[in-house]
Amino acid sequence: MNSPTTTPTRPLNTTSQVTFRTPEVTDGGALWMLARGAGELDVNTSYAYLLWARDFASTSIIAESGGLAAGFVSGYLRPEQPQTLMIWQVAVDQGFRGQGIALRMLHELTDRVTGATVLETTITDDNAASIGLFSRFAESRSAEIDRRDLFGKGHFPDAHDAERLYRIAPLR
Ligand SMILES: CC(C)(COP(=O)(O)OP(=O)(O)OC[C@H]1O[C@@H](n2cnc3c(N)ncnc32)[C@H](O)[C@@H]1OP(=O)(O)O)[C@@H](O)C(=O)NCCC(=O)NCCS
């Protein structure tokens, strides 16, 4: 029996064209499923993803292939620094990894959010895929990465690892 915390297995997909678009409320469930199946992410409530798809759609993006949700990036403009695009989560379905989809989503989203000059995200030191992804993104935009401590283990009420801030600029 499938564990309730795993997404349905999808076939490896290397042929279908990938398209990118702004998420809608009806995509909220798919975002939650992708986050749940990603393995490394903090999985928030399904409600949070519906809310995100409604209120932060213009700073988020979904990738589709063959009618399936292949991945998403969720982000927001920081209220106190609206030129900073904060990336909250990036997930690509296991069957679609290694095809450049995450990198393309970051570029697509950055190109769409034209007012952003800085991109931020936080990464735990053990997430090699995420560190690799954002390093490749910065490199391909000829941007610098400034790394600094943000949320230490002591900030978290549970056993969460420290999250280091990655600040990537200039974006264009
Ligand atoms: C991280 C993740 C989004 C990458 O998705 P992806 O579509 O497979 O990534 P891409 O194919 O676009 O890879 C782009 C670059 O990221 C880096 N990268 C991707 N996966 C990597 C891995 N497992 N280890 C190290 N670097 C990796 C590489 O530099 C890669 O460029 P290259 O192939 O030219 O070397 C995906 O593995 C995932 O969903 N992981 C679980 C959730 C997560 O950790 N999200 C990030 C934190 S919010």
Largest sheet: 7 strands, mixed
Overall average pLDDT: 93
Please report the first level of CATH classification, the CATH class: Alpha Beta
| CATH architecture grouping | 3-Layer(aba) Sandwich
State the distance separating the first and last CA atoms.
48 Å
Number of domains: 1
CATH level-four homologous superfamily name: Gcn5-related N-acetyltransferase (GNAT)
- Output the strand order for the largest sheet: 1-2-3-4-5-7-6
Secondary structure tally: strands: 7
Q: Could you say which small molecules are bound to this protein?
A: coenzyme A
Gist?
The protein contains four helices and seven strands. It has 172 residues and is of the alpha+beta class. The protein has a single domain (18-169), classed as 3-Layer(aba) Sandwich (Aminopeptidase).
Give structural notes.
The protein has helices at 28-38, 46-55, 101-112, 128-140; strands at 18-21, 61-65, 68-78, 81-92, 118-123, 144-151, 163-169. The chain is α+β, with helices and mostly antiparallel strands and 172 residues long. The chain has one domain (18-169): Aminopeptidase (3-Layer(aba) Sandwich), CATH 3.40.630. Strand 3 and strand 4 form a beta hairpin. The N and C termini lie far apart (48 Å).
